[in-house]
Write a structure and sequence with these properties.
Layout (H helix, E strand, L loop, with lengths): L2 H50 L4 H20 L8 H33 L4 H23 L3 E9 L5 E6 L10 H13 L4 E4 L12 H4 L9 E3 L3 H6 L1 H9 L4 E2 L3 E5 L2 E5 L22 H8 L8 E4 L6 H7 L3 E4 L10 H8 L5 E5 L2 E5 L17 E9 L1
Parallel strand pairs: 1-12, 2-3, 3-4, 4-5, 7-8, 8-9, 9-11
Antiparallel strand pairs: 2-12, 6-7, 10-11
Helix pairs in contact: 1-2, 1-4, 2-3, 3-4
């Protein structure tokens, strides 16, 4: 085997290895989560009792209830019955609470380390923990609701100068509605794109699940192409597509369009191959990237060929088919530390621009959030991609 071919084979095996690693992680998640929550309840109750000089007994109960409420809010987020206003408030409270608990735990651990170096009175320790947690959570919430424009220049062979704006993982629902869409449209139009691509997860819940929520998309000053994501499927993928079509968005369902001198290939949300998995997310789509992509990309397509898919898995099959650029979302870049650290190890392509063989891959952190409406270590992102001749 030639050296180049061997290197390509190793990369493909590496991609499959990453997906196998995600499957193994998925199987361990329930046990690991229960263990982590149990240890957190015990530790946080002990430290809170220290701050207030009380018995930890009732703090065990309080933190257990807080974790139960936060997990319930996370589970209820995409459920149809969470559409009413009372459940809407419960989901918001639970989702915010899980972020607060995460950073309260982190701040307590840091404060304990400092307390070993500089012995602090109970009151000072408590003020440090409370004020730091509040400041960190407020900062993380501001980060989540302040989309930043990220400009990326990508050199491709045989490309006309095209400006693409990528939206992804908007997650309309309990925390984001029509006003958020208006904000995104305003920012996108200021970039003067030739085309807009939307790589999935438009909605995440039945709350705000209306065509009216999407009406601002009519004001976009460039054609928009959409492929569905896993959260769209959790709500109702077909209804999401219909609502977007009603606002002038072109939905790509395993099809190709030629626009602005490029070939745009849009894939439905699907797994990479029959033996792979997408972390915690299931797909009811029986088709896979390995099966579908060779049917869409052929020699007669003009280059550059740009593939849109919600997840950055199946890269090896897309590169093998001859694509020049692969655009995805889904990962949120990890969204919150320490998930940012975990995601970097779970996904070979977690965020930003990378190469696989001759193909370039860009994974956007997205402009929405899932669970806690917070970002720390990542930014809410609207990506401006300028294609230039290599």
């Amino acid at each position: 085997m030639a050296r180049g071919e061997q290197k390509t084979a190793e990369k493909r095996q590496g991609g499959v290895g990453i997906e196998s690693k995600i499957v193994n992680m998925k199987n361990m998640i329930p046990l690991f989560t229960l263990l982590l929550i149990g240890l957190s309840v015990w530790y946080m109750a002990q430290r809170t009792a220290y701050i207030f000089s009380t018995s930890p007994r009732w703090w065990y109960v309080a933190y257990t209830l807080a974790f139960v409420m936060s997990v319930f809010g996370l589970v209820a987020e995409a459920k149809a019955w969470s559409d009413n206003f009372v459940m809407h408030l419960v989901v918001i409270a639970g989702s915010v609470l899980i972020g607060i608990l995460l950073y309260l735990l982190v701040i307590m651990l840091v404060a304990d380390v400092l307390n070993r170096i500089i012995k602090m009175p109970h009151g000072i320790y408590g003020i440090l923990v409370g004020a730091s947690t509040a400041a960190l959570c407020i900062y993380a919430i501001i980060q989540a609701f302040t989309p930043q424009v990220k400009e990326v220049k990508i050199a491709l062979s045989s490309t006309p100068p095209v400006r693409i704006v990528q939206l992804t993982d908007v997650h309309l629902g309990h925390f984001r509605g029509k006003k958020h869409v208006e904000k995104l449209v305003h920012i996108v139009n200021r970039q003067h794109p030739d085309i807009v691509v939307f790589t999935g997860d438009c909605f995440e819940s039945w709350y705000n699940f209306t065509t009216s929520t999407l009406e601002p998309f009519r004001k976009l000053e460039a054609p928009v192409y959409f492929v569905s994501g896993n959260h769209d499927a959790y709500v109702n993928a077909e209804e999401v597509k219909d609502k977007l079509r009603a606002t002038g968005v072109q939905v790509l369902e395993n099809e190709v369009v030629e626009t602005q001198g490029i070939s745009l290939v849009g894939l439905d949300y699907m797994l990479a191959d029959p033996v792979s998995d997408d972390g915690m997310h299931a797909s009811t789509n029986k088709a896979t990237v390995r099966e579908v992509i060779p049917l869409l990309i052929h020699d007669s397509l003009p280059h550059p060929i740009i593939v849109l898919h919600h997840t950055p898995l199946g890269v090896q099959y897309i590169a093998e088919a001859g694509a020049d650029l692969f655009l995805a979302g889904h990962t949120h870049g990890g969204q919150l530390w320490p998930m940012t650290w975990i995601n970097n190890r779970a996904f070979e392509f977690n965020k930003g621009l990378k190469k696989f063989d001759k193909m370039q891959v860009y994974v956007s952190c997205g402009s929405g959030t899932f669970g806690p409406p917070m970002r720390l270590g990542t930014h809410s992102e609207i990506t401006v991609i300028d294609l230039v001749e290599k």
